[in-house]
Structures are given as C-alpha cells and as structure tokens.
C-alpha cells in the first residue's frame, strides 16, 4: 500500500509530497498521472517527490527495477478567488463578516493586514470569519489561503468609533428644523444621525464637525451619531412647545 502526505496540493505544483510504501530502493520514476516528478529516495520505505503542475485528480505511481507500485490518488486544488466581503468597514474591535468567492473549501487562514485568523468554511463559495481587532483606524489588505494558494485583492477599513464632545444648540421648536453643530472626533465616517428613534438629515463638514437638522419631536431625546466604527449618544436635544 502506498500513501501520500499531503495527498493534495496547488495546481501550480512545486510542493513536496512524501510517499510511503515498501521496496523503493533504486526507484527510477515517480509519476503524477502522465507527468514525471523530481524525487529523492529517502529510504526503502520513503520517497520525497516534488509535485508537477496539473489541474485534476491523478494517480501517483512509483517505478523501480522490480516493477511499479500500486497507485495512490493525488488531488490538485484550484487557486482560490475572492469576489466580495459582506462588510468592508467596521469597528476597531472587529466584526463577523462573510467572504464570497470560489475554490474556498480547503481554506486554512485569512489575513487582515498582518493579523491572521482561521475562517469557518461554509461551502466552496463561502467563508465566515470574525475580523481580528486592531488599535488604530486603518485600511488593510485581505487575503485567503487554501491548499490551492493565496489570493489577495480585497480590503477592509477599520473605523474609529465617533465621540461627541458638544452640541450647539441643544434646544429647538417641536416642528423641527433647528441646525445644531456637533463637535467631536471620527465624525467623517458617520452614516446616521438620529434624534431619539428618528433619523435626520445632516452634513459632514470634516472629521470633527457635523451640522444636523432636528426632525419634529417632543420632550428631551438622545442624539446619536453612528458610523461603521460604533455610535455616541452622549448628547441630548430638548424640544420646546410651539405656541398656538
């Protein structure tokens, strides 16, 4: 009986495959399908071969002066491809996301910049992974490694959580329309400003300034600034009752 370790590899070949069996002394040929492989006879029971390139499952056969070995199957794994990430932006402490692509079944790791994590293989086209945390906002390359190779081409942007330090004015009529200047940090990535449960219109001036326009409402409500990095609800707005 002949065994291979590993029994699969990239279509480009070039990886070492340890062949275990018996009576290998004086071996003259190792073939992966119809292709000859470079090899070294380590002992009577072991050969180390370098897999040639190919794109399908093939039988590996060792030939010696005494004859040929029983065949063992070797499987070529296609190079992985990535088409999209379910989220391309998120907080510094990471979020769960899904990678869509092809030839992903043998995925062993995903890298976000210099940080590597092990994904969960859903099927050949889908990986689930939790983005690893970082300490500062940044955009990093995303790669996935399978037995077929490593592919790049996507990015993920870590966004700092918005912080609001002040808001002026903090009161206005109940029919809405009051323009308030919101001051803070990490505001340029804002995706929503809400007064209580109601989202409202706003203009991002720069990373430290937003001008928001109160919707209609009553009482005192929290003002929440939300981005991919998180949210801040530290400020409040009080509606005054209009006469009449």
Automatic annotation (TrEMBL):
Residues 79-159, 161-240 form the IPT/TIG domain. It holds the Pfam family TIG. Gene3D superfamilies: Immunoglobulins (2.60.40.10). One of its GO terms (molecular function) is semaphorin receptor activity. SMART domains: IPT (SM00429). PANTHER family: PLEXIN, PLEXIN A, ISOFORM A. This is IPT/TIG domain-containing protein. It comes from Streptomyces atratus.
């Amino acid at each position: 009986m002949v065994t291979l370790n590993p029994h699969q590899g990239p279509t480009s070949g070039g990886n070492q495959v340890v062949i275990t069996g018996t009576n290998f002394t004086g071996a003259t040929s190792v073939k992966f399908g119809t292709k000859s492989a470079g090899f070294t006879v380590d002992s009577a029971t072991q050969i180390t071969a370098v897999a040639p390139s190919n794109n399908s499952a093939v039988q590996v056969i060792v030939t010696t002066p005494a004859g040929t070995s029983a065949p063992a199957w070797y499987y070529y794994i296609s190079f992985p491809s990535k088409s999209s990430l379910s989220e391309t932006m998120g907080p510094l402490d990471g979020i769960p996301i899904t990678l869509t692509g092809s030839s992903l079944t043998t995925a062993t790791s995903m890298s976000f910049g210099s940080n590597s994590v092990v994904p969960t293989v859903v099927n050949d086209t889908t990986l689930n992974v939790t983005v690893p945390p970082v300490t500062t906002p940044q955009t990093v390359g995303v790669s996935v490694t399978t037995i077929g190779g490593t592919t790049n081409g996507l990015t993920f942007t870590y966004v700092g959580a918005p912080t609001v330090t002040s808001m002026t004015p903090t009161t206005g009529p109940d029919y809405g329309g009051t323009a308030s200047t919101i001051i803070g940090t990490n505001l340029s990535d804002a995706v929503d400003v809400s007064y209580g449960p109601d989202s409202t219109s706003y203009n991002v001036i720069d990373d430290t300034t937003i001008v928001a326009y109160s919707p209609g409402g009553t009482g005192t409500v929290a003002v929440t600034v939300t981005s991919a990095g998180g949210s801040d609800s530290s400020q409040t707005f009080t509606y005054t009752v209009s006469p009449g």
